[in-house]
Amino acid sequence: MAVVAVVAVAIGAQPTPARARHGRFEDIPMAEPRRDLGTYPLDTVDRRMLPDGRCPDVPLVSYGGTLLRFARAVRIHEAFVPRVQVFERIVYDAALEVYGRPPRRLVHRGAYNCRAVRGFPDLLSEHGLGNALDWSGADFAALGRGQPAPPGLPPALRRGFSVRVLDHYRATTGLGRVHARFLQILRERLIAATEFSGVLGPGYPGHEDHFHLDVAPWTLSYLDRIPVDPPVPAATR
Predict the structure, then answer these.
(1) DSSP assigned state of 227
(2) CB atoms within 10 A of CB 50
(3) How many independent structural domains does the chain possess?
(4) Which among 80, 140, 212, 234 could disulfide-bond with 76, CB atoms 3.0 to 4.6 Å apart, if both were Cys?
């Protein structure tokens, strides 16, 4: 089974994930220290698990969304809230562009979870700080009466529907093609957003059914880029 190598870099004594030299991780870029390191409240927290598998005591809040609503509130670090609000704005704008309206709710697989990075019992996950979100999709209501639809929107998508990363990220036919384009727009804009240092999703092992967003002290973004029609321009930071 492929294993991710872990090395120490000059972020204090913090362990930082890096690309494995073999297996499923061989094409994933090396993690590097974030350029604005030291500007985020959680940058100084050691990413090593505490004894007995404990996580650091950090201030968590229950957050249900601002511009968009979550199907259930997430528990996240208070410093992560503005970053999630940026995510909401990105989803809102992309949905308006593709579907003519924003989603009525966002669906997720969790945020705070006191655990280590899978496969590395000594490396604290960003979830263990409430500094990460696993987003899995969105639910849309029907277009309102008289509400204009974007050109070319299939009539079936004027009604209510759901988009899920697992079901639609690699879709190539039918209505799934529209959802795949929406997810590719999100891919590009999230990777380009300086508010997130970690953006992982389909193509990165263990992330086929969600987008993982975090503000770790290092940068590591990887999601497969899927050709869609019309094409989605690659975004850069």
Answers:
(1) -
(2) 13
(3) 1
(4) 80
Tokens representing 31 are 């993690």
Who contacts 187 (Cβ-Cβ below 8 Å, separation ≥6)? 199, 201, 211, 223, 225, 232
pLDDT for 92-138, tens place per residue? 999 999 999 999 999 999 999 999 988 788 889 999 999 999 999 99
Measured in residues, the chain has a length of: 237
Q: Which domain holds residue 119?
A: 39-222
Residue 3 lies in a domain: no
The answer to whether the beta carbons of residues 107 and 139 sit under 8 Å apart is: yes
Long-range Cβ contacts of 90-94 (<8 Å, 24+ apart): 90/186, 90/189, 90/190, 90/193, 91/138, 91/186, 92/67, 92/68, 94/182, 94/185, 94/186, 94/189
- Tens of pLDDT along 45-90? 999 888 888 899 999 999 999 999 999 999 999 999 999 999 999 9
Residue 104 CA to chain centroid, in angstroms?
19
Q: Is residue 152 part of a domain?
A: yes
